[in-house]
Amino acid sequence: MTTTNISQLSSLPQRIKQWGLELGFQQVGIADTDLAEAEAHLNHWLDKGFHGEMDYMQRHGLKRSRPAVLQPGTRSVISVRMDYLPESSAAMNRNLEKPLAAYISRYALGRDYHKLMRQRLQKLADRIANEIGDFGYRVFVDSAPVLEKALAEKAGLGWIGKHSNVINRKAGSWFFLGEIYTDLTLPPDTLADNHCGSCTACLDICPTRAIVAPYQVDARLCVSYLTIELHGSIPEALRPLIGNRIYGCDDCQIVCPWNRFARLTGEKDFNPRQQLNSRQLLEVFAWDETTFLKYTEGSAIRRIGHERWLRNIAVALGNAPYSESIVSALEAKLEHPSDLIKEHVLWAIALQIEKTKKKPEVTSSNAPGFES
């Protein structure tokens, strides 16, 4: 490195942050590699078995919590935030309140963020190299054993909330994270303070009570895990609690008071595609695999495949109010070759039929739901 380049290093962190903003990131911070506290939290979480079938969470040993083990020579981590909120909380709540609407976690409505952010991070790394010369680095976007939330917290991007998502005081939590591991020694930013206080909104709203304690999420109960990560059968006791959520869950973010500061994304690629924010359950249940692949092209939804897509929708249809059209659609899927699909379809049909045997009880004209 030349003498000129050495003199430039003192201003490099600020320039990296400015370049990041120019590339479309909403925030850039720098963290050191000491994740001892986060490592202890991770090990405690794994020891409790809260990771469920996500074996990859423990497969890589110390690589996840020790950046220099994953990428030798790493001295600093550049952490970035990219906001993705595609619509208001009111719009999301309206969708959740309609039992025949198909609710998809809002991060998955647009283009898959992995490729987009990786390209932007690569451009940021190239910009740094153009300025100081070659340096060692590696780009990550949820693609390797990285404790991205802990790194974001150390980089000053926000604090890890009680629901385990990173929260920013001025922007809420609707954002993606990405990292550049580098061999540059850069001054770290100040650790973000925690501002959750005594609030328990996220714990109280969780449909399956997956947030078993502040800062502790049992993934085995989480709707996002059940509809995305879990490959087999969804436990029967949890199925009625899933409601109409067919891919992921946003409840803990929707209710978070700090998200009143969240702004709609300016990234066009994160806006809803193929009307995925307003599809109906019966409509998407009718998609064959070819149609599914067509409408989820470029989307993170594709990762679960058509079989689990139908599994999830069958559960949601079972949870919907009784309808002959729902029962007919479910019965049509009994010919599907997948035992996984047939199991969930049979459960949904049984639940639909059970609803025909129940009569609503009216005790007073002042009962909830009556209007004067």
From TrEMBL:
Pathway: tRNA modification; tRNA-queuosine biosynthesis. Keywords: 4Fe-4S, Cobalamin, Cobalt, Cytoplasm, Iron, Iron-sulfur, Metal-binding, Oxidoreductase, Queuosine biosynthesis, tRNA processing. One of its GO terms (cellular component) is cytoplasm. GO terms for biological process: tRNA queuosine(34) biosynthetic process. SUPFAM superfamilies: alpha-helical ferredoxin (SSF46548). Its cofactor is cob(II)alamin; [4Fe-4S] cluster. Cob(II)alamin binds at R64, D142, V166, L177, S224, C249, D250. It is found in: Cytoplasm. [4Fe-4S] cluster 1 binds at C196, C199, C202, C256. Binds 2 [4Fe-4S] clusters per monomer. The active site is at D142. InterPro entries: 4Fe4S_Fe-S-bd, 4Fe4S_Fe_S_CS, QueG, QueG_DUF1730. [4Fe-4S] cluster 2 binds at C206, C222, C249, C252. Monomer. Belongs to the QueG family. PANTHER family: EPOXYQUEUOSINE REDUCTASE. This is Epoxyqueuosine reductase. The lineage of its organism: Bacteria, Pseudomonadati, Pseudomonadota, Gammaproteobacteria, Methylococcales.
